[in-house]
């Protein structure tokens, strides 16, 4: 009876499938293969790696910095209604204008170069518009300031932030006389006296000198040479209010031209501000395909 019951139970189990796979495999004499392990998720893409294997963070930072700088520059120029200038070329290793030791002071109106660059110079210092300081800080355009003591002595400090931005400080005499009407010693007092004043106020004696009205003679050159001047700087174009006056018949800028402007305000510019006049000047330069370089890098 017991044998009959065991046989019936075995038949029932085989019909209902209640035997576990392991038991079935073992019963069949087979070894069960475990299911494959789940595949690990792929690692996300990693940053480019430098030769040493570390992520090249320096290149990414440089790219981000250049992009942010360009965006900031574009915004600064838009503030003044302008477009950014192309960067000037690297200055020459050897300056094209040099005073030979013991030689006469060179007199220049332009710089020998084939590059499409010009140089902005601003004379006297009569107008002291704080907006002009803000403009120069925003635009980062180099200018050279030829300062006259009688025009700036009431507020030497106005020009301090401009000098700190890297703009050149140059000599335009103590009192702005017509030097041709003075003898050599009187000219020397005008030039050397302003050298000392500017060195005291801004820390460095100027290397460049511009005679008032562009009037000079050989006494001027000799006097300037005794005062430590490296070049007498004249000009090729002068900025008025909206346009430039040209010395050449073709009425165009040429590579290396030196441009004259003045520290002037609305009373002298028929209601135009110093910053508006400067913006007009920069547009005229840009419209002719030029950019602005630093005069002191070439003299």
Labels describing this entry:
single chain, 299 residues, alpha/beta, 9 helices, disordered N terminus
Residue-averaged pLDDT, rounded?
86
How many DSSP E strands?
10
How large is the count of helical segments?
9
Which structural category do the helix and sheet elements fall into? alpha/beta
Silhouette: globular
Main beta-sheet strand count, sense and barrel state: 7 strands, mixed
Unreliable stretches, pLDDT < 50, 5 or more residues? 1-47
Beta-strand content bin: 5-15%
Q: Provide the helix percentage.
A: 25-40%
Oligomeric assembly:
single chain
Q: Please tell me how large the radius of gyration is.
A: 39 Å
End-to-end gap: 125 Å
Order of helices and strands: HHHEEHEHHEHEHEEEEHE
Write the layout of secondary structure elements.
Layout: H1 2-16, H2 21-28, H3 57-79, E1 107-108, E2 117-124, H4 130-139, E3 143-147, H5 149-152, H6 160-164, E4 168-171, H7 184-202, E5 208-209, H8 218-226, E6 231-233, E7 237-239, E8 244-246, E9 258-262, H9 274-287, E10 291-292
Parallel strand pairs: 1-6, 2-3, 2-9, 2-10, 3-4, 5-6, 7-9
Antiparallel strand pairs: 7-8
How would you characterize the overall build of this protein?
This protein has nine helices and ten strands. The chain has helices at 2-16, 21-28, 57-79, 130-139, 149-152, 160-164, 184-202, 218-226, 274-287; strands at 107-108, 117-124, 143-147, 168-171, 208-209, 231-233, 237-239, 244-246, 258-262, 291-292. The protein starts with a helix and ends in a 7-residue tail after the last strand. Helices cover 36% and strands 12% of the residues. It is globular, with a radius of gyration of 39 Å. The longest helix has 23 residues, at 57-79.
């Amino acid at each position: 009876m017991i044998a009959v019951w065991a046989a019936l139970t075995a038949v029932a189990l085989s019909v209902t499938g209640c035997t576990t796979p392991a038991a079935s495999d073992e019963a069949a004499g087979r070894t069960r293969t475990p299911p494959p392990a789940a595949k690990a998720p792929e690692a996300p893409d990693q940053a480019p790696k430098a030769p040493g294997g570390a992520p090249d963070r320096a290149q990414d930072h440089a790219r981000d910095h250049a992009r942010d700088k360009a965006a900031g520059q574009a915004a600064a120029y838009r503030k003044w209604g302008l477009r950014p200038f192309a960067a000037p070329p690297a200055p020459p290793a050897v300056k094209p204008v040099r005073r030979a030791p013991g030689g006469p002071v060179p007199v220049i109106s332009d710089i020998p170069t084939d590059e499409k660059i010009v140089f902005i110079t601003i004379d006297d210092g009569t107008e002291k518009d704080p907006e002009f300081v803000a403009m120069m800080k925003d635009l980062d355009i180099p200018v050279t300031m030829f300062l006259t003591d009688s025009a700036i002595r009431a507020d030497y400090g106005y020009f301090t932030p401009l000098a700190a931005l890297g703009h050149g400080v140059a000599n335009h005499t103590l009192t702005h006389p017509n030097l041709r009407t003075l003898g050599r010693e009187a000219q020397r007092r005008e030039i050397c006296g302003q050298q000392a004043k500017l060195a005291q106020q801004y820390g460095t004696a100027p290397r460049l000198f511009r005679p008032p009205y562009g009037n000079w003679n050989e006494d001027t050159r000799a006097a300037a040479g005794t005062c430590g001047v490296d070049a007498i700087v004249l000009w090729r174009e002068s900025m008025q209010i909206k346009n430039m006056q040209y010395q050449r018949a073709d009425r165009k800028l040429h590579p290396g031209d030196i441009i004259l402007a003045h520290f002037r305000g609305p009373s002298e510019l028929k209601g135009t501000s110093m910053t508006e006049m400067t913006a007009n000047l920069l547009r005229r330069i840009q419209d002719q395909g030029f950019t602005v370089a630093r005069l002191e890098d070439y003299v």
